[in-house]
Amino acid sequence: MCLSSASGKSPQPNVILIMADDLGYRDLGCYGHPSIKTPVLDKLAAGGMRLTNFHAAASVCTPSRMALLTGAYPVRLGWTQGVAGYLMGAKDGMASEALTIAEIFKAEGYVTGISGKWHIGRLPGSRPGDQGFDSSYYNPMSNNQLDEIWRGDAIEVKPTDNRLLTEQFTNEAIRFIRENREKSFFLYLPHTAPHFPVMPHPDWKGHSGYGDYGDVVEELDDRIGDILKLLDELELTRNTIVIFISDNGPQGGEQSSALPFRGKKWSALEGGSRVPAIISWPGKIPAGQESGALTGAIDLLPTLCRAAAIDWRAQSKGKPPIDGIDVWDTFLGNGQKHPRSELLHWHGMESRPQAFTQGDWKLFLDGRAALDGYKAGKGGVEKSPMLFNIREDADETKDLSLKHPEKVETMRMRALELIGELDSSEKLELAKPD
User: Fold this and answer.
1) Which of 89, 116, 133, 298 could be 324's S-S partner, Cβ–Cβ 3.0 to 4.6 Å?
2) Which residues are known catalytic residues?
3) 381-406 burial: b if 16+ Cβ within 10 Å, else e
4) Does position 135 have pLDDT exceeding 70, yes or no?
5) Whose CA is closest to 105, among 135, 79, 140?
6) What is the CATH number of domain 342-424?
7) In the predicted model, is pLDDT for residue 257 greater than 60?
8) What is the enclosing helix (H) or strand (E) of 161?
């Protein structure tokens, strides 16, 4: 059990941040999937808050993870397009100067660990141990790119077996929790599942009745259950914040689903960035809550710091500035006005944001980005902006730009103001091989 401090103050909460890879908005039972069974995550949602308007900071792996760990839009970190190993160099990564949530928690006395997919750099300076993690067991890239698991700075497993990764990363997370049960800990658990190639564990093959994809998601759910059972066993549940999210929307060609939204990974449509998100802290976050308030993954850094009574500003180096907003009051359900009303969106192919949400409205600055399968860099004349009311038109098919030209212009000017601030701010440079 985590002990209180000598001063008599309540112990700081443990934090377990779990992230799936390419899990679609509707791929959990509690988000409406008719076939895939996820009783563990359904129960976690029932005991805390389920978010229905939560967005990854980018619709592809590397920039999404950079933003999650720093609370900053990825362009502030030097990202311009793609992921490490595709449109980026295979060894390109996040600069060591970036301040991560792990570094912040570590400076406050937490022991920090990662078990899972890293994908934001494998050069010295960009590895987990250089970015605030005391313990690291990880695949440096995606499971389709590199068949290695590293511990610290050395390869421990090669070749890997995609079928066993969820089990391996869970076992390491369990080891970390057991080893640090008497301390305050921050655990980042970014699973590779259900990223392609979708290959079920031998014990889970055929389990779901929904093909390989369903098998992999159901195993992921069950393995998370093993972690939650351990928290109960160690009497840590009531002092542990558990968050579950996905890094972006579903991969095309898989059995995943983003319904009722249109678009997938590599898209600025809602299906590319709106993902399932659950947060639980028994006794603090009231059970059975649901929130449709606009929230971004970039908001988790300041929010979790607030929950743990950590002043992240005291550690901030100003590189990069934090774009995240503290939404802890919303998670507590205490009736305070939700502080976020707008958010920029990227489709992953270029550094310029493609869309801007303000309240119920979403503006595509170049209407081509609202088309399924649109890819940047093909040239041609920019298409007029397209405007959608995403509350009334979840699949973004009814362009209202001609009906509401004033709204288009107001939002366009505000988006350009935000983009101008990003363009003019000091940015970090990506770490690259010599």
Assistant:
1) 298
2) 61, 119
3) eeeebbbbbbeeebbbeebbbeeeee
4) yes
5) 135
6) 3.30.1120.10
7) yes
8) none
